[in-house]
Amino acid sequence: MLATPLPRLGRPARRVLAAAHGRVAAWTRPAPLAVAAGGRADAMRSKPALLLENALLRHQLLILRRTTERPRLTSADRGLLVLLANRLRTWAIALVVVRPETVLRWHRQGYRLFWRRASRTKSSAPRIPSETIELIRQMACENLCGPKSTSACSPCP
Question: Over 60: is that where the pLDDT of 150 sits?
Answer without folding.
Answer: no
